[in-house]
Design a protein that fits this description.
The complex is a heterodimer of chains A (476) and B (342). Chain A has helices spanning 21-27, 31-43, 52-63, 249-257; strands at residues 81-92, 97-110, 113-129, 139-142, 149-152, 159-177, 182-193, 196-209, 214-227, 233-234, 260-261, 265-279, 284-297, 305-309, 315-320, 326-339, 343-354, 360-372, 375-386, 395-397, 415-427, 433-445, 465-475. Chain A is mainly beta and 476 residues long. Chain A has one domain (2-475). In chain A, strands 1-2-3-6-7-8-9-12-13-16-17-18-19-21-22-23 form a 16-stranded antiparallel barrel. The two termini of chain A are 26 Å apart. Chain B has helices spanning 18-21, 56-65, 70-99, 107-113, 123-138, 148-151, 167-174, 203-218, 309-321, 326-333, and strands at residues 2-3, 9-12, 37-43, 46-54, 118-120, 183-185, 188-190, 222-228, 231-234, 242-246, 257-261, 264-270, 275-278, 281-284, 287-288, 293-294, 301-306, 337-340. Chain B is of the alpha+beta class. A nine-stranded antiparallel β-sheet of chain B has the order 1-2-3-4-8-9-12-17-18. In chain B, strands 5-7-6 form a three-stranded antiparallel β-sheet, with helices on one face. Chain B contains ten helices and 18 strands. Classes of the chains: A mainly beta (476), B alpha+beta (342). At the A-B interface, α2 and α3 of A face α5, α8, β11, α9 and α10 of B.
Chain lengths: 476, 342
């Protein structure tokens, strides 16, 4: 389904909560929402729903009864339109800065049909590691466009400072309830950025039984991506050429073009997902799902290189990375969610594995503490552990034949990441809900057992990344 | 006070609204008679009332338009309210007549008489049965519209020292209870022989939801309130909140707690019967139809706010059926509620 999608957004860095459809429907599993849904089937018109969400907040203040807001979804799917707007700011220390604006729109057309739309615009700027190792002397790299160079200072991780992009994402989804037991969804996705276009369709089916205590679901999504990297796609494993090594611009161009493909590359993704949600008892609910994702086409990162070093650890050249053109991923997801007197507790674990031998474990715990009917705190702690892909090479060794596949992208290397976050939500007048979230994210790339010859050992070749995420949200 | 047919009594809301009736601003004087109207009638064994009060914006506009002509404006306004109230009352009485288990001619009595065979049901009945089915599932069998045989065994009405039923009696009665044995299809129902349906737990709230719909359609520029014996619903986004007293069943001498309703519904589940004492053992007043025995620690009364009256009523009932867990349940639902325990 769409929430499994592996897209290089701030979300994907594991820092920003994604408003996925699945978790949405779980959250609204409240008896209140369920009754509203059921009653709307025979009450016809939306009855008194048009300002239902305002109700709870106002009454709470006036009756001073003990109340607690279960979830933001107190306004149920039928309470007309819900609009969520969020501004997310992501800042890595010395590296990437991302700002994202998201608007989610949700509207119940009638008892049986709900439509959702999402628009997200994000802007990324800053520098990101190009994969080359740290050296004791300054290094120069030809820019992806072939025009000019960017440099890394001695002892510093080489960063490609041209990392700049603006992306627009649009998605729409139609959910249809055939009955209380069967529902389907159909959706479309479009994202566009300077060098990348993605089109997707998805469909899902969900069945409830066992007195609505059990839901089974299945979904499929297909994405068709068009990749047009700046300056063409590098020929995999070809060596970076430098203007200074050529007498004329024309000669350099000719050599540079020999390392490039200028046609359009495609990438296709098929995601399949099946799962079951079970109510365990009055307070606890669990979900188990399995996902399969088959990807083929152009899977390289056109802007990443691998250093070729000699026995003293000195870089003699840089080769553009090459990954296999197919990838088959499996993942298993286990989640349990409990309603405590004071709030909600959620634990989840995801295991994923693929035929690049990249294994990963994700543990996530969230505790939402309701201060009153009108405010809550939510704490989050997340750990992510990943093993390196089989073709991960921190560097290539001079004198040895070039491997068929190699990438020094730290995202394919061994790493651990940690996220600690806190969110505060406050109900405002007229049923609006404001929230602010602050999270600290740390990514710790690890050495997967590579020897560090000569000068490579003098530096921390696996520097960690610290980032801060600040998010403001508003629900209308 | 005016009176029209079918026992619908009207009175001016200005009488009730004393604080607001004290007029300091001369310019508002013209709207004095537009303070609103109250209509009262009896239905579903309860005192019922409809309240209508013009929205400030609407009455201002009307005031400007009909300056020097306000008597006529009031008259037409009053007539419209009267007519709307009558239509809403007719809707309440229609539902009462259709789903009254004790009336010989009601649709529900027909259905109960046809137990043992397939029978046709209309859309409205289907909707109510589907909702009841949903609640049955949500409550894991504790809310059951077929529970009457087992509820009737517990003689709460006969004083507090009556004898509880025997296990054997309960077992026998339970044979005729169980919503899962009903087969509900598109517009037909199979009610097994010996079983019966009682929609008492839904019909009044449903009638309130329907009545507010009628009033809203006819009087869009008014703040509206429907109160059917304590189950009430206001029109959305009332400009001025309705003040409602909730009586504490065991402190009838103290003033009622006042809550305000600006939109949505408030429903109360509660019983005058409290417990049954037999040989020193105290039995609670709420029976779990899945077991046939009382639920431990049920509150005396539960009031819940929700967008719709059927939903508020059902949440109150479900909370009651949680017994000692009533508070936890409602807190978990994020509702605004009020629970009274004995």
């Amino acid at each position: 389904m769409s929430d499994m999608k592996d897209r290089p957004t701030p979300n994907q860095l594991g820092t920003v909560e994604s408003a996925s459809l699945k978790s949405d429907s779980l959250e609204s599993e409240s008896v209140m929402a369920s009754l509203l849904m059921a009653s709307s089937l025979f009450l016809g018109v939306g009855a008194a729903l048009s300002c239902g969400s305002a109700l709870a907040g106002e009454q709470a203040a006036e009756t001073r009864d003990n109340t607690a807001e279960q979830e933001e979804q107190a306004s149920d799917p039928l309470a007309g339109a819900t609009i969520d707007a969020a501004l997310v700011y992501y800042q890595e220390q010395d590296r990437v800065t991302a700002a994202e604006g998201i608007v989610n729109y949700r509207q119940a057309l009638n008892d049986a049909n709900i439509i959702r739309g999402k628009i997200a615009l994000d802007a990324l700027t800053g520098a990101s590691a190009n994969g080359a190792v740290i050296q004791a002397s300054p290094q120069s790299f030809t820019r992806p466009s072939g025009t000019g160079v960017y440099q890394a200072r001695a002892g510093e991780l080489p960063l490609d400072d041209t990392f700049k992009d603006t992306r627009l994402q649009l998605s729409a989804n139609w959910q249809h309830l055939f009955s209380a037991k069967w529902q389907t969804s159909l959706g479309g996705y479009l994202s566009r950025e300077y060098d990348y276009t993605s089109l997707g369709v998805n469909a899902g089916l969900e069945h409830s039984f066992n007195q609505s205590n059990t839901q089974v679901f299945a979904g499929a999504a297909y994405y068709f991506d068009i990749v047009n990297p700046v300056g063409g796609r590098p020929v995999g494993m070809s060596e970076m050429v430098f203007r200074k090594d050529f007498a004329s611009e024309a000669e350099f161009r000719q050599a540079f073009d020999a390392t490039r493909y200028y046609d359009t590359a495609l990438k296709r993704t098929l995601d399949l997902n099946v799962g079951i949600t079970q109510t365990l008892n009055r307070r606890w609910q669990a979900q188990l799902s399995y996902g399969l994702s088959a990807v083929n086409g152009y899977l390289n990162d056109a802007y990443k290189v691998v250093s070729r070093v000699d026995s003293r650890g000195q870089a003699l050249g840089y080769h553009y990375e090459q990954r296999p053109d197919e990838r088959l991923k499996h993942n298993l997801y286990l989640m349990t969610k409990g309603a405590l007197d004071s709030g909600t507790l959620t634990f989840s674990y995801r295991y994923s594995n693929d035929d690049w031998s990249l294994q990963a474990h994700t543990l996530d715990a969230r505790y939402r503490y309701n201060l009153s009917g009108a405010a809550y705190w939510q704490w989050q702690f997340r750990v992510y552990l990943q093993d390196a892909a089989e073709f991960y090479h921190l560097y290539l060794t001079e004198g040895e034949p070039l491997p068929e596949f190699a990438s020094a992208d730290h995202r394919l290397g061994k790493m651990q990441t940690y996220t600690i976050g806190v969110k505060y939500g406050q109900k405002l007048e007229q049923g609006m809900l404001a929230s602010v979230r602050l999270a600290y994210y740390q990514q710790r790339p690890q050495n997967p057992g590579v020897e560090l010859p000569g000068e490579l050992a003098s530096f921390d070749q696996f520097p960690r990344i610290d980032a801060i995420v600040l998010q403001f949200g508003m629900r209308f | 006070m005016i009176s029209t047919g079918e026992g619908l009594k009207f009175s001016s809301l200005a009488d009730l609204d004393n604080q607001q009736a004290v007029i300091s601003d001369e310019s508002q004087y013209g709207h004095y008679n537009l303070k609103g109207l109250k209509g009262e009638f009896m239905a579903m064994a309860s005192r019922c009332e409809f309240l209508a009060r013009p929205k400030q914006a609407a009455s201002k506009a009307q005031g400007d338009k009909t300056q020097g002509d306000k008597v006529q404006g009031d008259k037409t306004g009053g007539e419209r309210i009267t007519q709307a109230f009558e239509r809403a009352m007719a809707e309440v009485k229609r539902i009462e007549a259709k789903y009254n288990r004790f009336s010989e001619n009601s649709v529900l009595t027909q259905i109960n008489r046809s137990a043992g065979d397939w029978q046709a049901i209309d859309d409205e009945t289907l909707g109510l049965l589907k909702f009841a089915e949903h609640c049955y599932r949500l409550s894991q069998g504790k809310f059951d519209i077929t529970a009457e045989p087992v509820l009737a065994l517990w003689p709460f009405g006969d004083g507090e020292s009556a004898t509880p039923p025997s296990d054997c009696q309960i077992e026998t009665a339970l044979e005729c209870v169980g919503f899962e044995r009903l087969i509900i299809e598109e517009l037909r129902l199979f009610l097994p022989y010996g079983m019966g349906i009682d929609l008492g737990g839904i019909a009044k709230e449903y009638a309130a939801d329907r009545a507010i719909e009628v009033l809203r359609r006819e009087l869009p520029e008014y703040d509206l309130l429907v109160n059917l014996g304590g189950d009430m619903i206001a029109s959305p986004c009332c400009e001025c909140p309705w003040q409602i007293g909730i009586e504490d069943p065991h402190k009838l001498d103290t003033p009622a707690r006042v809550v305000t309703l600006k939109s949505g519904a408030l429903a109360t589940s509660g019983h005058s019967r409290r417990y049954l004492l037999h040989q020193g053992k105290r039995y609670g007043h709420i029976i779990d139809p899945s077991t046939g025995y009382p639920i431990k620690g049920a509150p005396l009364s539960v009031s819940v706010f929700a967008p719709q009256c059927v939903v508020a009523g059902m949440l109150a009932t479900l909370a009651m059926l949680q017994g000692e867990g009533a508070e936890t349940f409602l807190v978990g639902q994020g509702t605004v509620h009020h629970i009274i325990r004995g």
